[in-house]
Amino acid sequence: MKVGDQMHEMAITEGILKIAFDYADQNHSTKINKITLKIGEMSGVEIEALNLAFEVLTKNTIAENAELIINRVPIVGECNKCKKTFHIDHYNFFCPECDGILILKSGRELQVESLDLS
């Protein structure tokens, strides 16, 4: 893992925690128990670096010891010709059925899916 990767995930984690802290503040919560994320396979996020950044950035906060759950979203495309959907492997965007072009339907997500507060 490169330092650049860690910086990228550090910035992503800061954004996630800003959302969580703002939401907790709006709801007068004193503890964040769990943060669930939806992260696409094509989002460019290194999960190991994200977990490390989360551990570092939650120290001495209301999110310390919070569980971080990551739901991975596969890269899925729909063929522009036959309209069938397929999991995209190795970034091959050609339809295995008819050689049409697969239009990306999922896999780039990066969002907070849910928060568990108390």
Would you write up a description of this structure?
This protein has 118 residues and is of the alpha+beta class. The chain is built from two helices and six strands. The radius of gyration is 18 Å and the shape is elongated.
Question: Could you give a short description of this structure?
Answer:
By secondary structure, the chain is α+β, with helices and mostly antiparallel strands. 30% of the residues lie in helices and 31% in strands.
Ordered list of secondary-structure elements with their pairings:
Blueprint: H1 3-26, E1 32-40, H2 47-57, E2 67-73, E3 76-79, E4 85-87, E5 102-106, E6 110-117
Parallel strand pairs: 1-2
Antiparallel strand pairs: 1-6, 3-4, 3-5
Helix pairs in contact: 1-2
